[in-house]
Design goal:
The protein starts with a helix and ends with a helix. The longest helix is centred in the N-terminal third of the chain and has 30 residues. The strands form two sheets. The chain has a four-stranded parallel beta sheet. The protein is built from nine helices and six strands; from the N terminus they run H-E-E-E-H-E-H-H-H-H-H-E-H-E-H. It is of the alpha/beta class. It folds into two domains: about 50 residues, no CATH class; about 170 residues, Glycosidases (TIM Barrel).
């Protein structure tokens, strides 16, 4: 290996280390301050721009249990989010989790069993034993808290109203007034989630709804 190539390799190593240092510094700084907006930018308390690098993590499917808890411990998943270069998770949920007490009070074990997911129950018992006896809403909160312990910001994302896969034009979850999309219930659910997480420092925002869609879309309701 010649001197020129050695210099180039050394420079690449220095740049890589500098980039990692910058990423780690920005990651820690974003979690340490209160965020706000300035024009089109998200900024910290000093007015410096903060860039959100978010990854989706679904919790809106029929069991209303965060996906992957049967695969790896939630702490391991949270750390992998950071290791992959993300500083934020878009954590999805159905409005029913925030408005339907008969659903949100089910335990993770009860919900998984109700959907015939015996193998998942066994897997969660191995990887996240403490979650099985948590209610669905407490399990959701526990995921948020674990992300916070790993300095990961969270965007609470209302994906659907009725738990289930998203999205199709005829799933009843698409537009205001659809079968499962009651605007008043939706607003109440958003309010309930905002209240529940008001004092949780790593929750930095809410996504009000995912992909308004379907044959009932119209400009009058869009701009009401």
């Amino acid at each position: 290996m010649g001197p020129s190539l050695l210099r180039r390799v050394a420079l690449c190593v220095v740049l890589a280390c500098a980039c990692q240092f910058y990423h780690d510094r920005e990651h820690r700084r974003a979690m340490a301050v209160t965020l706000s907006t300035s024009s089109r930018w998200i900024v910290d308390e000093a007015g410096r721009r903060v860039k959100l690098a978010c990854v989706n993590w679904p919790s809106h499917l029929e069991p209303v249990v965060t996906e992957g808890l049967g695969r790896q411990p939630v702490d391991v998943i949270s750390k992998k989010v950071v290791a992959m270069g993300f500083n934020c998770v878009r954590l999805t949920y159905p409005i029913a989790l925030a408005t339907n007490a008969s659903l949100s009070s089910l335990t993770v074990l009860q919900s998984l069993r109700a959907h015939g997911l015996a193998e998942t129950v066994a897997a969660v018992e191995v990887n996240n034993l403490g979650f099985l006896d948590l209610t669905l809403v407490d399990a959701f909160r526990a995921v948020v808290d674990k992300l916070g312990e790993n300095d990961v910001m969270v965007i609470l994302d209302n994906h659907v109203s009725k738990p289930g896969w998203c999205c199709s034009d005829d799933d009843g979850n698409g537009f205001f007034g659809d079968q499962y999309f009651d605007p008043d219930v939706w607003v109440q659910g958003l309010s309930n989630m905002a209240t529940l997480f008001a004092d949780v420092p790593n929750v930095v925002g809410m996504s009000l709804r995912n992909e308004l869609r379907g044959p009932r879309q119209n400009t009058e309701d869009w701009y009401r």
